[in-house]
Structure formats: C-alpha cells, structure tokens
Amino acid sequence: MSKNKLRIGVYGLTGCAGDQLTILNCEDRLLKLFETVDVRSFLMAKSDNLEEELDIALVEGSVSTRSDEESVINIRQRTGSLVAIGICACFGGIQAVFTEPEEWAKQYEQVYGNRSVSSNAALQSRPVKAFVKVDYYLPGCPIHKEQFLALLSRLALGSTPEFHRAPVCLECKWQENDCLLNKNVLCLGPLTTAGCGAICPTCNLPCVGCWGPFEEANCWSEWNLLLDKDYDRNIIMQKMKSFSGTGFIQFFNTMKKERT
Amino acid sequence: MINQASKTAAIENPFLPEPARIVRSYHLIEGVKFFQIRIVDIEKALSFRYLPGQFVMLSILGIGEAPFSISSTPSRPGMLEFCIRDVGRVTNALFALKENSIIGIRGPYGNGFPVETMQNKNLIIISGGLGVAPLRSVLLYSLDNRDLFKDVTFLYGAKRPYEMIFRDEFLRLSKRDDVECLLTVDHDDTGTWTEKTGVVTSLFKYLAEIEPGETYAMVCGPPVMYKYVIDELLKFKIPKHQILMTLERRMKCGIGKCGHCAIDYIYTCIDGPVFSYWDVIHMRELI
Amino acid sequence: MKVIKLEKKKLIPFLQFISQERELWAPVKKNDRIIYDLIEDFTCIDMNTTRTLLPPKKVIIPQQFNMFRVTGLGYESDYSHAVKKILFGIHPCDIHGLLILDKLFMQDHPDPYYIEARRNTLILGLSCWPDEHCFARSTNTHIIREGFDLFFTDLEHSYLVWVGSSAGDDLIKLKPEFFEQKPTDQDIQDFTYMQIERDTSYKTKINFISMPDLMELKYNETFWEKMGRACLGCGSCSMVCPTCNCYNVIDRHLISEETGERRRYWDSCTLCEYSEVAEGVNFRKNCADRLRLWYTHKMQAFISKYGKASCVGCGRCLLTCPVDINVLTVSKSLQGKDVYAYWNRLPREASDDKSSK
C-alpha cells in the first residue's frame, strides 16, 4: 500500500454495526474507495487488520463498557482525526436513553443486582465525545451512503466535511409532504438534523429523530406545541429521548427546574 | 428522446469560474497569506477589469467558494493580489495549495470605491488589521494615478509590529512626500518599532487641517474600530456620504441571486460592499 | 388578446397532443398531497385543485440540481434541469409568483439556470376558485393579464382560452380543429358572472397599503420576539413561498468519481446558518431577526423597489407554518390587531435565555 494514501480505520463500539454495514453497502463505489484510501482496520470487512497510526478513524457506537472506553481512548491516541459515525457515537443513541445517573443506576441494579461484573463492566452509555475529542460528526441511524462518501472525500482532500445545516423539515418540504405536525401527529422533524431525505414523513410516518438533535432545535416551542395538541408530557419526553441520547439533556434539565 | 437540454445557455454563465493560477503565495504575518493569482487564459487575464474595493469569488475544486476583496490595483493589470486570513474551509484549502496550483475565479463583483467621483478630492484611507486588504487597492490606485487626486493620507493600525500586513511596503511609503503615510501599533513588544504607537484614532492628531467637503474617507477594519474612527471623521466635519466603508457578508453568488448577503433591503454583493456612513445609519444590522 | 373556446372533453387530448415533444407538468394527487409532477397518465391531472404543496418555481428551479461539473482543469455548465416543458394548471397567483421571480432572476445579472428553464417552459394557466386561505384579491394577483402562453378559464362545460403569446398561438395551431374561434354571448355572460362571484369569494383579506411604513415603525415591537421564540426554524415557509428565491451551494467531489460538481439547493433565511460568516460570526443569531428579514424582504424591500409586495396571496404559508407565523398573522400584528396564533400564546420559558443568547 502506498504511503501517501489516507490511512483509515473503521471501528465499532456498542451499537448495531449498521453504520459499518452502510459503508460496506457502498458496493461498486467501495472498490474505488478502497483503491483510493488505505483501509488499515475494518473488522467487519477484512481480517488482516493493523492497529497502528491512522489519519482518520471512523467510530461507530456509544461508549457503554470499560473496554469501549479503553478502545476509544486508544484509537484517539493514534489517529489524526476522529469521526463519530451514527447516532450512537454522536449522541449516545438509544442505549443512552437513561441520561440521568440515578435512573441509570437503578436500572443497572434491576438487571445485574449486586453481582460484580469484573471482565467488562457496563458504564452508563455515553457518546464518544464524552470520553475523547471528536473532530467530525456524521449522524444517522444508520448513516447515509452519500453523506459518508461526501465526508470521506472532503477529508481525503484535506478539508472539512460540510453538510447542509437544516432540520428534517426542509428536506420534508423538498419531498412535498404535508406537515405532520399540522395533522396533529407527534413529529420530531423540526428538532432533528436533516440528511435522511425525510424518508419517514414521505411515507407518512412521523420523524423519530434518528439523525439526532438539530443545532438550533427549538425544543421549547415544539414541546409546547405538542402539549397544545393534547399530547401527554411523558409521551413527548419519551419520543424526544428515544434517539437523542444526551442531545436534549440541557432542555430536559431546564424542564425539571421549571416543574419545581 | 428529442427533448434534451442544451449544454449552453442563451447567456454566458456568470457562475462558471475561470481557471486561474496561484503564481505566488507567502505568509505576510501569522495566519495571513498573500496570493498572486493570474487567470490562465492570458487574454482574459489582461482584459479583467475591476475597481478598487471590488471582490471576486475564488473556488477550490470540491471544497467550495468564497468572496475575497482584491488587494491589487487595476492600474497594474494581468495579476490579481489577495491578502487572505485563514478563517474557514475555503481559506484553509487555499493556504494548503502550492504555488502553480489552479483555482477558479469569477467576478469582479460589487460596486467598488467611486474612484471617478473622488477625483480631485483629498483621500483619507484608514485601516485596521486585515481591513487593509481592500484599502491597499485604492491606495495603490491613487498612487499610480497620483495627479488625479489631491492629498492622499493613509492611516494604518495593527496590534503589534509583526502583525502589520505589508509592513515593509508601507514603511517605504512613509518616506515618500506625495503621500502622508502614518503607521501605528497598539503595543510595541519588539522594541524596534520606529513609527507611532497607540490605536489608529490616535493618528488623527497628526493630520493637517482638511477641507471636509473636498475629502473622502475610506474605512475598513475590525468592527470595534468603525465607531471610533467615524466619530473622529465627523469631528473633521466630513459629510456622511463621503465617509465610505467596506463590509463583509456571507455570499454564495456575488450577483444578488442567492440572498445570503441581504441586509434590510440591500444586497451587500451588488449594492455594496462599499457603503457610505449615510447608508449605514439607515440600515440596521450593517456593522 | 385573442380569446377562443375549447370544449372541456377536448382539453386532455389537446394536452396529450402538444406534449409529444415536451414534458408536461401539471398538478396531480400523490399520497393525499397535490403536487406539480411530470405527467405520464393524463387522466391523473387534477383540474380542480386550489393549490399545490410546492409552488411551480420547482419546475423552473428544482429543489436541488447541479450547476456545473468540474473536469480536470475546466468547468462545464449543466443545464439538464432545463428541458422543454409545458407547465399546465398554474393559477393566476402562481403566475404572478413567477413574474416576481423573473424580476429577481432575470433583471440585473441574469441567472442562466433560471432563464434557460424559463425560456424552455410554456405556461398554460388555469382559472381557480379561492378557498378560505386565499387572499390573492388583497395582493391584486387574482387576475392575470401577462406571463402565460395560454390561459384556460373554466366555464363549466367549456374553457375560454386566452392566447397570451405567439408560442401559445403555435400550440393552438397544432390542433386548430379543437377550438371554436369565437365565444358565444352566453359564454361572455357566464364569464362575467363567474368573475364577479369569484371576486367576492375571497374571505381572507389583508391590507398591504401601509406595510412598508409599518415594517419600519414596528421594527422593535414585541411580537417579533414572540414569533422568534415560537419559530421552529424549519424553513418550510421559504420552501412553499412562490417568491422565495434564496439558495445555497455545496461543492462535492467524491473520491469514487472522476468529476466533481457544485450543487445548488433551496435555502431559507430563517435558518441559522444562512447569515453566518467566517469564524461562526452571525449577524442574525436571533430567530426574531431572521423572521424580520423574511418579512422585510416581502413586505417592505420589494414594495420599495418594485411598487408591490413580494406576496401573491397563495395562502401556502398560512397552511404550512406549524406555529402560525405567516403573512396574515404578521400583517395583523403590524396593524396592531389581536392575533389568535400559537406563537402568541406560547409561554415564556422560565429560564428564558433565548433572547440573550
């Protein structure tokens, strides 16, 4: 392998491996990709993996165990830049739903009791950024092929990836859908980062937020709008929590304060 | 199918960049680089006409496009010069490019300084930091056409001596007697600075009496600078519409189509980037 | 202008005939929504729709398209969106919308992507009946006298057809036997009654006369802040507006491809990224400021420059904004009227730091 090629590693922490699978699903373009970059490590795709210095590490999954933590720290130490891929790596994903330590501890006790787990202790699930510096985020559940290729191409050019910074609603309108919120459906489109192409609303299903919180998400307005539409606050919270991981934690904290 | 779109449109495509070569590039100060760029097509390079204060859009393949004000003078055609700070995606990529690399250029855009209206008037050019980028163009233009203007005054403030862009060029200028060139730094921590110290407004006290109606002032610098400089200029009783400033906005087209540079009801890219103080006090969000 | 007559049952055969060498785009119902679409099955055309979800601007300037390809050292324009089209079923307000876009895209520094598509698109207008959200009567865009090649006015059993251009006349000449050259006295009477009745059917009314002054005088009114607090920042208002023209571009050169491209897509000034400059500096960090820009453009700037509002009364924003920020509620607020809207009853966050952010 040529020395000038970008050295890449693809890793999975706790997650469904769907993002790695998406990369493999690039099919015919994957071959070209593998010619252009030097894939040093990609456990799902090949067996001769070299755990050495990298230019780019693509990390999927949240940090949910001690060994996750160790791997991600190790990867960070030997890579130029680190990209969190998928909602779990970016925000913690579904497994980070218990964002409050007390809640998590209670849950842990229910499952494991007092037994001590020595080999690979579970941690409260957190996004990668809670442990190491993350250079770029590629959200999605799973990630989008086109976005992945665009990101990698930019990095290969030595530049920074760039995505259209908008909520799902924008793409939803491009797809010419009626607004589900206007039909009183609990849709998280306005709170969620675009990139999926609004596939769910296009099939008349509400957005569940799998691309993660949009940077400018107006939780307060959406929350009250849904209350206005007679949704129960627990239901709203459940929906907002399911994919956002630690993303809306600040909002939930202010809501707690508001109640007291 | 018969129905196929044509490859060429009825009008020339103003969005299509023209290949241009980075002829020279080097650091002026830390984080700021100087670029000399020439359009590859020699005829187009020589016929590229612009006004001081105008800007162009520079493209880097696969990375993006951004607006940059021209630092060279149209009185020296063929070569375009830019003074660029490394602040974002496109500038990062520009900084990484080697000399002889090809980039894309289109333009020039914007209104530029009203050099014809300013003829036979006094010019006061006041810049701070990187604000010198567009003002160097009008400064060099006035020097290349020295007999078209009355007194030319150039005030330039930088934070420290080694943060003064084009320092040697301007130090040479300060020795000339057909232009009043006053340079200042906020702090001299080198101990070798021979010019003035203090903020740029402290230079006003060295200015001779001026006829305000016969004077145009041009200002560009960091946002904090404007208020103080304009206060000084108003003290000199320079009419508000003769105090000119050039502004920066996000732009995607350069020709009033994409909407990104809109401020109230004007587009920075076609109605600006040069505005008078009179314009500015009528528009919110301007500086 | 020449006015001729077409029997209703002959319309579809006529459309079929004239679209042999052109794409025909018309309103159709797809999964419960009415959209402009490329017609393959002519029986699907929705002749009675009030409005489509996206305005017809999408037929001229698609939501996203490639501006040019980058190959080696050169750049190659891509006008593949600008194939020959017929746009049928476009209502007067939407034709006015295109005329406004013409001003923005075709005057000073013309945009070839718009011009090329516009030049290749024939406009076949169709009369319509207002619903409770239409206010084209208030914007004076309920009637159209220019900007179409043919205009079909529905008179129950037949259409009166206005021939607005020589290209439109050429279309008629393809099937002259379909048309009657002279409307009858009865047709004229029917048309007159229809117009009067239609005129009085606009229930939503907005007075635009003093808008530019009110925009100026009420620049700091608290309702802007209230709207800013409620605005979801979704950008839908811009997407559905027939006169919104803003766009953004993104460069792409995939390592798996030989050529790169610059992609252009619809943008909205209500998005945070819109006004950001280098180093994350944003001139309009506040949502209220961004909304104010949107309305300044429509109801002040455009009026100052062109003498009329950049709003055609199509009512799309009324139906789209989930939090009731639209031309109607904004203009009512400007006029100091009480407004029943979600944004007006949204409580302030106890720990409200939105405005200070």
Concise overview:
The complex is a heterotrimer of chains A (260), B (287) and C (357). Chain B is α/β, with parallel strands linked by helices and 287 residues long.
Count structural domains of chain A.
2
Number of strands of chain B: 15
Question: What's the rounded overall pLDDT mean of chain A?
Answer: 90
The oligomeric state of the chains shown is heterotrimer
Q: Describe the global form of chain B.
A: globular
Task: Encode the helix/strand succession of chain A as letters.
Answer: EHHEEEHEHHEEHHHHHH
- Any idea what the radius of gyration of chain A is? 19 Å
Order of helices and strands of chain B: EEHEEEHEEHEHEEEHEEEHEH
Q: Work out the strand percent of chain A.
A: 5-15%
Summarize the main sheet of chain A: 5 strands, parallel
CATH homologous superfamily annotation of the largest domain in chain A: NADH:ubiquinone oxidoreductase-like, 20kDa subunit
The SS-based structural class of chain B is: alpha/beta
Could you name the key traits of this structure?
heterotrimer, A: 260 residues, alpha/beta, Rossmann fold, 2 domains, 5-stranded parallel beta sheet, two-stranded antiparallel ribbon, 11 helices, B: 287 residues, Elongation Factor Tu (Ef-tu), domain 3, 7-stranded mixed beta sheet, 6-stranded antiparallel beta sheet, 7 helices, 15 strands, 20% helix, globular
Explain what you see.
The complex is a heterotrimer of chains A (260), B (287) and C (357). With 260 residues, chain A is of the alpha/beta class. Chain A has 11 helices and 7 strands. Chain A has 2 domains: 7-156, NADH:ubiquinone oxidoreductase-like, 20kDa subunit (Rossmann fold, 3-Layer(aba) Sandwich), CATH 3.40.50.700; 168-259, no CATH class. The model of chain A has no long low-confidence stretch (mean pLDDT 90). Chain B is globular and about 70 Å long. The N and C termini of chain B lie far apart (54 Å). In chain B, 47% of the residues are buried. Chain C has 357 residues and is of the alpha+beta class. Chain C has 2 domains: 2-199, no CATH class; 211-345, no CATH class. In chain C, 34% of the residues lie in helices and 20% in strands. In chain C, a hairpin with a 7-residue loop joins strand 11 and strand 12 (260-266). In chain C, helix 9 packs across helix 11 (287-306). Chains in contact: A-B, A-C, B-C.
